[in-house]
Amino acid sequence: MAGKLYLVATPIGNLEDMTLRAIRILGEVDLIAAEDTRVSGRLLKHFEISKPLISYFEHNKRLRGEFLLRELQEGKDIALICDAGTPGLSDPGADIVAEAVAAGIEVIAIPGASALLPALTVSGLSRGGFRFIGFLPRDKSGRRRELRALAEEQSLMVFYEAPHRLPAMLADLAEAFGAERRLAVCRELTKMFEEIRRGTLAEMIEHFATRPPRGEFTLVVAGAEYKEPADIAPWLLERELRELLDRGLSRKEAAREVAGRHRLRVNKIYQLGLKEETDYAGGKND
To answer: Which structural domain, as residue segments, surrounds residue 260?
Structure first.
């Protein structure tokens, strides 16, 4: 019989958040795969767990994933842990989970610590649904492109960010969402220097401009306010589209920009752009 793959949540800072079930499972499995064996080695030593420990991270996940899959198929039980929190969220654990599921291997979650839910509950912004984004692309153009696509998202959004990228991320958030968008910046959750700051993007940018960010950050950002679509005359929309197209934007980019301004469906504006471009080519816009 095939073994089982256990996704074991570990503390994100405070070791007292380790669950009894997690300790038991780690002590029973045949093998533990960890994001960083040095970090996880200290955790296992603290709880007096002695099991074979191998690395599984972004740069070895393909070869190591093949090895883990073979071990599972041969009947070994394996626990997957990350440096902190729940494996499979914003880490390569999602890949081995998908491979195990595809191979018919049982995957069992051992719940526990995560920065996601604590940040939501203390943010003061939670009123219903949310959208988990995790880490944005590291390159500026990719990050800005993704944020522009999220500008009209009405649900709360949860982001993870490293300290050295936080100032640039806050600036890009303000550019895409507006400087008055509210958020909660959660730093070092469950740790000795835990800090929750609430306010607008403008206030957070000002704060961190004089206080270099330190530690790990979870950001809970308010969604866009819903506004009834305005009854805009088609010729005005066509004029805005033409101005953007003349500036060099693609038809898709121009449609997204105009739709965002007026809370309209992008597809509707895109089709209007097709008509407008056809009319323009035919001489009807003179």
So the answer is: 234-281
